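Note to self: the last two entries modelled the partners one at a time, which told us nothing about the interface. This time every component goes in together.
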Amino acid sequence: MIGQDILDRFAGLLGPKGVTTDPDDIAPWTTDWRGRFHGATPAILSPASTQEVAAAMALAAELGVALVPQGGNTSMVGGATPPADGSALILSLRRMNRIRSLSPDDNLAVCEAGVILSTLHDAAQDAGRRFPLSLGAKGSATIGGLVSTNAGGTQVLRHGTMRALVEGIEVVLPDGRIFDGLDALKKDNRGYDIKQLLIGAEGTLGIVTAAALRLVPAIAARAVGWIGVATPQDALALLRLVERSLGDSVEGFEVIADDGLGHVLSHIPGIRSPIETRTPWHVLIEVDHADISEPGPAARLEGALAQAFEAGVAIDATIAANEAQADAFWRIRESLSESERAQGPALQFDISVPIARMPAFMVDGAAAAESAFPGTTASSFGHLGDGNVHFHVRAPKGTSDGPAWIAAQGQAISAFVHDAVVAAGGSISAEHGIGQMKRAELARLSSPARLAAMRAIKTAFDPDNRLNPGKLLPLPGEGR
Ligand code: FAD
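The predicted structure of the combined assembly is written out below.
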């Protein structure tokens, strides 16, 4: 157990601001965003610099203390929630929130791990640039968390996930040594790519203390459209049609089931449906130009949508008349998770399958889940163009005890959905990672070769399993 003598050693190193022991201050950080995982810890460590992180890691190594790295605690898979037995300390990066540099000439921002995503968006905008990755949790999620989960979001179609946007990384290794890889070189063939190993490692290999991030030119003009369609297959046909007309200026393409829109309208104040017709599916599309040449994005999107009506893949459509309306359309998309949480208990699956197979998966997979688990309703929303949707199975109407429903049905429903995903050639985690929620399923469904390689990497970096124990890697006995 972690006693007072150990906490005193950390306090001596990090000062009074660097160690939080008040249970009321700790409480919000020991439960995950969805409220599914409840942990405990005697203290949160909050170093203010890379050197302090390194010192804390070295001391943790000396004392044999396990650490759970944490940023904004918006993980969807219980990734930043400490173990329930209080056997680990949270290592929060939130005090390390400086943008060390932002160079429009280099198209680069060097951010400390605790910088909040929306803060980076604002800073880049002020410099005539932008950081092209956004997600619903942008007001809380931190750069360290985004790097460590290889986050995706709504612009992956054009700009890729964090793997494509991180040019350099600074990391403190489990023994306290600092790996300084912030040098953002276009070409660097010095063997193993440590940066890519750490991206998506979910805090199991090292602590990300800073990252050099790629910026792109600010948007000069954009058009945001909302299109009602009959099926996900029509949505995919629409995507391919607009890509033919508009090329890579299509920056966002999100598909939303009508019941998802219904939840937002019911639970989020001040939201209206962009179109009059209630169609079974909806598409939110954004077309961006970095210049102001004519025809602008709205005129070009209008032309593409005319073709979509002619081809019979669109039922109704509108293009936002101004920026406020464009933001209102996006607010619907960004409120989906929150409104569904308000709607009632559900199991969420963040899955990918090959893009061409996704429309059928969205329809047939939902029907199969509903028929296998009577009373449930299944639907999906998300990044169809990336072959990634959030596929949700909701508890039967009237279920008042969500945790009891999940305890009774969760494992069977998860296995059912994940088996279908694997049969379709997909991944059980497209964006959110594995955390503790999907650890056993990763073990069940991964090949022995994948598991052996993952274990070997973990052992090489963290032989004593002191970094984020119980996350990502199968526990003894799990897996093959
Ligand atoms: P945390 O939740 O604190 O941590 C996440 C993981 O990273 C944990 O394993 C933690 O141990 C580790 N970690 C955190 N900081 C560090 C660090 N400095 N060094 C090493 N390890 C660290 N994700 C998507 O990809 N796409 C989406 O569209 C998307 N939408 C979301 C919408 C909502 C409303 C919410 C709540 C979440 C969404 N997410 C999405 C989840 C997304 O993974 C997180 O928002 C984000 O990446 C995590 O950032 P965070 O700072 O909150 O990290």
